[in-house]
Amino acid sequence: MMEIPDEVAQLIDWLETLPTIGQLGISIGVSIVFLSSIKYILFKKLSSLVNQTRVGWDNDLYSALEPRTMFFAFALCVNASLAWLSPELLNTIFPFLNTLYILLFTSMFSSLVKIVTPPFMTWLNSNNQGVSVTGGNHFVSIFARIVIWFISI
Asked: Fewest CB atoms within 10 A around its CB: which of 36, 42, 112, 125?
């Protein structure tokens, strides 16, 4: 079994003995650092990678998923902070947080289908062999999104 170094154990003990306002401040500070690192490190690198490609749908996908991912990370910060500060309150609102996670994930997946389906269908129809159906891109996209939302709810 792995031993926790003495410094880490002392830090955990010190954090646990802080008053509630101190723990709240630590939670807010760690959340701000986490959200800032996601936005300014991860998304900045991802944005430069997306902007280097020649296709346009990845820019649309990035702009649709970035705010949803940030809101998802914020919900994770709230969940982790409540788990440390007030587990009783977390148990009370846990069904709402689960619902939020499901709706956010469904929204992200639905946006993915909405943006990726038309280029994918165009690529499938570019094959000159067989029968190609035109005008079905929107129908396939809408039907897939309806199925996704129906399953999630």
From this structure: 36
Please give the residue range of the domain that contains residue 48.
16-152
* Region 16-45 average pLDDT: 91
Residues 75 and 101: beta-carbon distance below 8 Å: yes
Q: Is residue 22 part of a domain?
A: yes
Contact 140, 121 (CB under 8 A): yes
> How far apart (Å, rounded) are the C-alpha atoms in residues 66 and 142?
22
What separation in angstroms does the CA of 115 have from each of 18, 57, 147?
A: 48, 7, 16
Phi, psi of 56 (to 5 degrees): -95, -20
- Can you read off the two tokens belonging to residue 89? 């309150």
What one-character DSSP code corresponds to residue 130? S
| Chain length of the chain | 153
What pTM did the predictor assign? Answer: 0.78
CA distance linking residue 20 with residue 88, whole number of Å: 14
The total number of structural domains that make up the chain: 1
Query: Does 87 reside within a domain?
Result: yes
Residue 59 lies in a domain: yes
Tell me whether residue 5 is in a domain.
no
